[in-house]
Hints:
By secondary structure, this protein is α+β, with helices and mostly antiparallel strands.
Amino acid sequence: MxxxxxxxxxxCVAHSxxxxxxxxxxxxxxxxxxxxxxxERAVLxxxxxxxxxxxxxxxxxxxxxxxxxxxxxxxxxxxxxPVQPGGPYVVSAVQQSAEGVQVHNLTDxxxxxVWLCGxxxxxxxxxxxxxxxxxxxxMALKFPNxxxxxxxxxxxREELTDLMKIELPWSVPSAGVLDGGNxxxxxxxxxxxxxxxxxxxxxxxxxxESCWGGTPVEAWSSERALQKCxxxxxxxxxxxxxxxxxxxVLWNAMxxxxxxxxIKGAIWYQGEQNTEYHQDLYNCTFPAMIDDWRMAFHQGxxxxxxxxxxxxxVQLSTYKKTSLSDAFPNLRWHQTADYGFAPNPRxxxxxxxxxLDLGDEASPWGxxxxxxxxxxxxxxTLGARxxxxxxxxxxxxxxxxxxxxxxxxxxNITYSEEVSVTKSNxxxxxxxxxxxxxxxxxxxxxxPAPIVETSSNxxxxxxxxCSDEVAALRYAWRDWPxxxxxxxxxxxxxxxxxAPFIVKRAP
Length: 507
């Protein structure tokens, strides 16, 4: 795996953009921002005059600290001492050179947890587009310690070190700030996730939105990551609605520039586009992208961002109610690297929000864009509390089979936790075949396996409709498997739906 040297990366950008001797912070630092709190150390960088001295001072009630560095190849970079959560602070940058003294201050800076929010249109979908949008927007002023920032949609064939444009600079939330229009700033899932986290953790949260609708995972991945899955940068591109998405172009322009930022973690809502493009590779490309982001942010921040930072994602919701296509079920499965749950041995320190029960046929934005983002964000927050913050006793995964036993004409499924079950005749299905040469797949006949009995954590299915041996079992393996919050199996409190799964008989 190739290394990323932070100073070398930073030096390239000054020459690329012809910034000369201009003294300033990099594009994504600004008033009202959130910097990563202790125990990690925040990184600040910017541009200046070669050989000049730059002093960065953090001024606030809790502590005052200073660091002085020398500008090299028109770049300065400082790693701050750890700062406990809180604020506000003033971050002062002073350059002393032969040309004199220049000062730039960042005001109303907080220290807290910084989360990156990425993906495609369901992450980009704005707060004004959700159910109860007016109420949600009106609550914004109650959360002044949750700050928001949005990178502009840009693409590049080369890796950039600074953002080309900013859609929303660091801002204190208000209805006006969060209502930037449809599929614009600010992301509903990102905002609600941050708001719920703040209510739980009680310290500032910084939210960095970097997403673009209609984009495949390959556009957000480095060439290094794609090579892990047999994909090369120059040879692959995806066409959608007249746009061509070459591999790596969004990684280059919208993720790579952020690598020097110290972050707590990331959440991700993407995959719809990959139901049509390299669907069969998503069980490789998605985990590889996570691994690569982690490595790159760790090295780009000089070791401050964890090399295994927590990564949450949304398992795809629904699209076409009557569809018999396996595209969405397959992609949901591949989102978990074919384990069905997260975290798992391939995707450690991850958490997943199941959303297949949040279908929204009446959505004005199309059924592929359900409006129930509050539920999505709540389920993500449960995962973050358990995985990122180590809270004990927080249920976040939902039920998943722990053991499956075939007993005569019945299948006994023992779940990982107590379950709330509504009997269904069709959501569980079995594939019947005695031939080892004819493995069950999408083109095979799948027969319903009705729920006939339940107990605290056990579901019993009937296989009376199976005229041969039971060769495979699957659950909720449909584009639109159930009604709104009406799947057959949930956690005992009916908050978390069971994730879909497929299991085949061992040879």
